[in-house]
């Protein structure tokens, strides 16, 4: 990764962008909304954007922490079970018991798509931008994603009946291809450049990651302004619901995993609350009601704004003294076996 010559200026620009941290994520959302034509141009490249986001996450994984987490898999197994089985079970059960599924089937479909989806492939990168344990998030992301082709059709059948038709084979092949391809590409990059070079170029890599997030956000928010002008109160209500779901998942996960340590609990909370609805919608080939699309667009606001809002809280967690009995080190330090 040269620092002089024809690539010097682009690297400097990416470094500046990467150093903006969570502020850049907010700017990405605002820019995506402000320039709708870019969304039409970006839409065909959503899959490639998701692939690159995961590739960056694989490329930057901390192998030492990875091995430490794998030696103690209880936390990863618990997080995987919570996000892939417990969350959709709870959402579906609440919708059925309260009658929301009958009163608002399109909204129930949106919530079930969100609940059954795997965590966002950008969640490790967002966790890293907040200074949280991206390696733990990445491991739980991979295990959760691997299970989604099996769990999503089951929950669709139980809670949505014939409202949604999912092909587990198609979804499974897509997820497997993305994961395997991203892992292979990231491994090749690490072998060619070395992990030391990757760490030294953290800022430009962060900047490139933000550019990829912009491609994804532009595709999703292409029709936001038109929908907002057509039905402002409806959009506001969906936005409030999207934020409520985000913070409910975040807070509940942090509470459940508080014994794992505050930073780990918050990292897992971010992962669980950031759901990859894009892949779930792609599996349906877009055959979903308009309300579902609108909720999906509004869910981008907590995804892009929460890292900026929550970063001061994450910094206070890292700076605060650890209470007796908190076992962060027991989870991440191979020396304390």
Automatic annotation (TrEMBL):
- Name the residues that span the membrane: 21-39, 75-95, 107-129, 136-159, 171-193, 205-226, 238-257, 278-298
Tell me the keywords, alphabetical order: Membrane, Transmembrane, Transmembrane helix
Q: Specify the domain of life of the species encoding this protein.
A: Bacteria
Coiled-coil zones: none
Q: Identify the InterPro entries for this entry.
A: Na+/solute_symporter_sf
Protein's name according to its UniProt entry: Na+-dependent transporter
